[in-house]
Structure formats: structure tokens, C-alpha cells
Amino acid sequence: MTEKKRTTIVLFSGDYDKAMAAYIIANGAAAYDHEVTIFHTFWGLNALRKEEEIEVEKGFIEKMFAKMMPKGADKMGLSKMHFAGFGPKMIKNVMKKHNALTLPQLIEMAQEQDVKLVACTMTMDLLGLKEEELLDNIEYAGVAAYLADAEDGNVNLFI
Amino acid sequence: MTEKKRTTIVLFSGDYDKAMAAYIIANGAAAYDHEVTIFHTFWGLNALRKEEEIEVEKGFIEKMFAKMMPKGADKMGLSKMHFAGFGPKMIKNVMKKHNALTLPQLIEMAQEQDVKLVACTMTMDLLGLKEEELLDNIEYAGVAAYLADAEDGNVNLFI
Amino acid sequence: MTEKKRTTIVLFSGDYDKAMAAYIIANGAAAYDHEVTIFHTFWGLNALRKEEEIEVEKGFIEKMFAKMMPKGADKMGLSKMHFAGFGPKMIKNVMKKHNALTLPQLIEMAQEQDVKLVACTMTMDLLGLKEEELLDNIEYAGVAAYLADAEDGNVNLFI
């Protein structure tokens, strides 16, 4: 019995293009039969937010964070070439033209391929994000769980 | 027979300083007899662009991307301290003063040391970049080829 | 005798939140008995700067760099959500509310856990930083030393 190869990605970034890169690598690795974990921390948690408004109890600062941060993968901005919001739109047009998968589609594909999507509980706490606001069928864990996966990983990336 | 150690770098960033870091690590690893691959994706592809204008057929959006993105390693900006373009110039002056290698020189050295420079075909397609516009003697591949190199890698980085 | 697991982090970024992520992973890995190295290069060196003004001989450009770069971990900005400096303050308030460790506290904890903190001599040279300006009890090395640690690393990250 050969052990499965393992890929782990820390998704720290809240940029659409970086999250795309993370999910493309994750889906590729899953297709090559790796066990894959994406550990979403800090701004990377935004990729896991549900699009609809979810009613949860929040303090003032937590409400502000919730307002200021993009609500879900589709709302995230680019790391480069914003041009007053023109950049993301252009990229999405280009992606449509080339039939490239959008970030929400890449996330769905990852879930179908059993990529383990983890939300970092420590930063959820800091940013005031509740489980109800995040996608279904994800896991919740801290840095110890990440390290347990990564220390046997073949490909470990921080994005 | 001992197997060679292996280093792979995904160069996602289009920043001069991050690309420098990538190429310094790559050249160091090659000097220590690692097999080294730099997989250029998204904005990192700009490091591989030729400086001169190359005539290729492009659609409107592809032409805009081509205009907006830096043409070659020497034109890339800094990740920090832009100060209206003052930062990159200052860094380059400082580098000259310290006889540090410039990014184009680091890329040339990498090619001499047989570092495998790969351009990501999927993002070339998205950004409308053609092979004629990129440096000679590089390879073209997708995420599967990257993963094949990385899964046996000793040092795998995403920059 | 089992060999210790090993984690290495290149801290390239000068952002408070990214440095926090680096030190949280490093402290976690040290707690799980990994040998841990953080190699501070480029803007990541700012995390190691002493807060007080240190008198050292500098040229004009080096003085400008010294002025423009944050003096120590506590002065670093966020990678996202600056809002004219409002972001970092909000994050720090939230951290205090949740009793989360600040970056200076995380660095101190790393030193207590024998995480090896290394300053990249090549970029110290470029940015004009002197040993006297950096924290005590750190090491000074170049890319070769980093690679020697990383090539046997279980978890190698570039942040």
C-alpha cells in the first residue's frame, strides 16, 4: 500500500487572483490523487463567506469588518490592476471568453473532489466571522491541525 | 547514486523585489546542485516578457492587458514603497552601488545554471500573451507539470 | 532516535498581518517540537528592528530607507484595509479585546521557544540596516544557510 501524496495550502490572501491560483493548484493536486487541504486564514476567509446576508449577533467593530470585507469569492478584488474596479471586471470577461472556471466554480469543484476546506477559528474570532456566515461542509480548526497536515505534506504553500 | 534535491518556485507576483527574491533563491539552489524549476503564472509571467515590441495578433482586451502590464523584468514595480516610481529607482541605485545583480541579470544567470523556466500556458491564454513575446529557451506547461515537479520537491515555494 | 521535524519560513513581507501569520505558524511548530527557522529578508527585516533610535553611520539613501521603513514590529502596516491607518488600529483593538498576542509578543515567544531568527545579510546591506539596529540574539546569514535548513524541511513557506 502506497501512501497518498499530500498538498496543503494556507490561503491568507483575500485577492481573487491569488485565491484562483490556490484553488487551481488544489484542484490539480486532487485530480492527481493527492489529499488536499486549504487552510483559510485572515483575508482568505472571505473566499468562504456566503453571498447572502446572514443575521448574526455582532459587536460594532465586527459589523464594520463584515461591511468592509468582500462577501464571498465572487466579490474579491485583484492583487494588481484595480483601475477603479475595472481590472476584476476585465479579468472576469476574459475568463468567460476563454471558458475558464470562476472562483466560485473552482471552490465548488474542490468540494466535489473532497478537498478539505478549513476555516481558521482564531482569525474567525478576530474578524468576528460566525460559522453561519461561511459555506456549508467546511471544517473548523487552528494552527495545530494545519501543522499536523503540513508536516507530512509533499507540497506546502502559503498564498 | 543519490538523487538530486529539488526546488520549485511558483512565481505569481509581478513585483520586482519578489521576483528578485525568487531568482536569488533559485540561483542559490542551483549552485547547491538542486534541480530547480520556476513556474511563472499570472503577473509573474511579466518577468519573462521580451523588452522589445513584438508584433502579434491580439484582440482589444488582450492589447489593453499588454499595455498595462510591465514589459519585461526591468520594468516591474516594487511591492512596497512606490513613492510615485521613486522607490524602484532608489532600489536600483542602491543595487548598483552594492554591485548586486539586477533582475534581468539574475534571470540570465538562472538560464546559464539550467534552472527550468516555465510559463503557465493557462494564464498566458487568459492574459493574451504569445510565445513570441516571451524569452527564448523557456518551457510551456500547465499546473499538472508543476505538480509533477513539486510533489518530489524538497523546497516548494509560492512567491 | 527520531529526527526532529523542521519548519522554515522566509519572511519577505513587511506587513503586520503577514508577519503575525508567520510567527503564529512558527510558534505553533515550535510547540510541536519542530526545529524552526524564520529567515527575514527584504521588508521582513523590519520586524527585527529595535524601536529606539540607534546611532549608526549611514549614507544619504540608507538614511532615507531607514526613515521610510517601519521601525520595529509594532509599527508595521496591514496588507489590506489601511483606510488611512484606521485598519491597523482597529485590528490591534480587536486583538486586545480577544487577548490575542501582539506581533512583538509573538516574536518574544518565538525567541523563548528557540525559534532561530535570521536576518538576511544581503538585504541588510541593500537597505543599509546595521546589526546594532536589530534585535539581540538573532543570527546573520545568507541564502545558502537558508537553503541548508530548508532542503531538509518538512514545512517550508514563503510569506
Automatic annotation (TrEMBL), chains A, B, C:
Organism whose genome encodes this protein: Mesobacillus campisalis
Pfam family, one: DrsE_2
Native organism taxonomy: Bacteria, Bacillati, Bacillota, Bacilli, Bacillales
Protein name as it appears in the record: NADH dehydrogenase
